[in-house]
Amino acid sequence: MRSWRFVQDWVARDPIKWQTLNTDLISSRAGVTVEHYLVNAIGGSIGVGILFAVVGFVISGLVIAMQKASGTTMTTPITGVHLPVSIGPIPMGIIEQVGVGTLAFSIAAAITYFIALQWPGLQKGTRSTKINLTLHNAVAYMYAMRKGGGELMVIFRSISDHSNIYGEVALEFRQIVRDADFFGLDEVSAIRRLNLTTPSTKLKDFLQDLLSVIESGGDMATFLSTRVHLFQEEARFEQKQFLGFLSLVAESYVTLFVAGPLFLIIIMVVMGMMGGSAVLQLSMVTYVMLPVGTSLFMVMIDLVSIKSEVVSRFTQKKLLHEFSDVRVRETTDEEPFFATLARYDKWRQVKAFLSSPLQAFVMKPSRILYISVPIGIIYVLVHLLMVQGAPDLETYLDLVDDHIVIAVLIILVPYSVFFEGWNRKLGGIESSIPEFLDRMAGINQVGLTMAQAISIMVNANLGVLGYEIKRIKRDMEWGANFSEALMRFERRITTPIIARMVVLITKASEMSGQINEVLNIAASDARMSDVLKKERLGEMFIYTAIVYLSFMVFIFVVGVLSSQFLPVLGGIQPGSVSQAGGAFSGLGSIPIKTFDRLLYHACLLQGFFSGLIAGQMGESSIGSGVKHACIMVIIALIAFNTVV
């Protein structure tokens, strides 16, 4: 309570100082006050500081103990001045440990507190980006409902109920619904309040224009129609900007983490030739610089990438307990049938998997890891047990590293095959969606119902989508209505484009039978998403090719060093150059096996991470980069075991 009152007084003395933090907390929908957040931030900072203080105290104690064991005297780390054994009755070691712990506490607590103060602003920026990315989809949904006769508050309520599809935009519109339902505000006042608190500038502008239309009595449908086309064009422009930035990232990656490590590797080999101990430096380049640097690049690309919201579908289950205290009389008429049905539902998925296991892996590629990972581990363990009597560590590593690489390929190759198969199926379906919706709109425009339109579309040649249309028709023949059949289709093929299409069409069909304009809107939205995807693939294909070419150059140079340069150095006798002295006196003592192993591992790691980067830049997915990684690792494996 004292800390709470202290923070309250602290904030009350200078409220302007904390105005930015308060705005960030509101815009990020943190759900806490400034005082409560500061209490948590201070408490967390103290906790992290104590943790680092303990770690610093223990590590400094170990260092002091090692100094005593080696017989060296304690010195200050900067000036090198020798320290006394003790100051009065207190040993100098304890004083140093306390000093290190205090310094660690201060630095860790200060950094944690600073990050805590900046975190709401970062969350606000992230929410703003997500809102901007899905706003044109939400406006298209608003236009479809408005054309069907929906009132504005009904539209906001409907979007807020689909937060699993429209993401942060739905959460923002939920604020309008909350203010109207629980705080008694009218829709204009609720929109004004959201306009003050939303983190997205684009949404602010849209809400201001919407308020102008409402207050002037303008045509809402016309306004929403113009905004749909405007936001779609802006989405295209934003992607062009992003692709320009991504091209810069690709060129920077090739320069820093392909050409850079290659240059350092050559320097390290020359240093080893001249007698310097370059093994540690080359190990740092191979095992630290390449993985850590590439991982940071991947994180940076992920942070700035234009990503769709993750779509999820929830099924609500309601349990009725109105008569929970009433005794239930057991009957024997239908109970056995219910038990049989429960057993059937329990084993249905197992039977479906056994009848078509490959289809189950294609639908969810991560399932194959349950099989490939144990196989890969067993493969490694078997070969580790077979390696016996290796004379030294280098020989042992030379015998097992190829098998570890093969085990990694055993794990990743099946996953990449099924992942690519699933992506190709999704790509075929999504590319056919605009044509499917255009044809449905034309059929609906002449007066046929949606069910009749589906029956006609069964005979259309729409590739992979044609099979799914047949399943939709079969669901309706077995008793499902049009909306239920579409929802089942969405559950089978869960992608953002299909989820938005299904929600848009089902909601519009509930409001009106003539939804040809809504279908045209959905077709335009799907076509825009497909065009953006294809433009990105086309623009980034050249950089994927550059990554492959740079990796080939890396392999070639390292292969020349390993096959032509190092064996010559290893054949030089130490005595033949030691008498001459000079810069090349250490030629005969170069650890050739160690250098050869490090160069091999550098090629493997370079290929693996370059493949992941190529997939992330070209197809906006690390999973898509697994196939590139496997291809490059196989190239390195073959090159070093056959050519080099």
Layout of helices and strands:
Layout: H1 2-13, H2 19-27, H3 34-70, E1 86-87, E2 90-91, H4 92-147, H5 152-160, H6 163-182, H7 187-197, H8 201-216, H9 220-273, H10 279-304, H11 335-355, H12 357-363, H13 369-386, H14 393-445, H15 450-457, H16 464-477, H17 482-492, H18 496-511, H19 516-570, H20 574-578, H21 592-619, H22 622-643
Antiparallel strand pairs: 1-2
Helix pairs in contact: 1-3, 2-4, 3-4, 4-5, 4-6, 4-9, 4-18, 4-19, 5-6, 6-7, 7-8, 9-10, 9-19, 9-21, 10-21, 11-12, 13-14, 14-15, 14-19, 14-21, 14-22, 15-16, 16-17, 17-18, 18-19, 19-21, 19-22, 21-22
Radius of gyration: 33 Å
State the total count of DSSP E strands.
Answer: 2
Proportion in helices: over 70%
Q: How many domains make up the coordinates?
A: 3
Low-confidence stretches: 76-81
Percentage of residues in DSSP E strands: under 5%
Largest beta-sheet characterization: 2 strands, antiparallel
Summarize the helix and strand pattern as letters. HHHEEHHHHHHHHHHHHHHHHHHH
Count of separate DSSP helical elements: 22
The main sheet orders its strands as 1-2
Average pLDDT works out at: 80
Structural class: mainly alpha
Shape: globular
Looking at how many chains there are and whether they match, the oligomeric state comes to: single chain
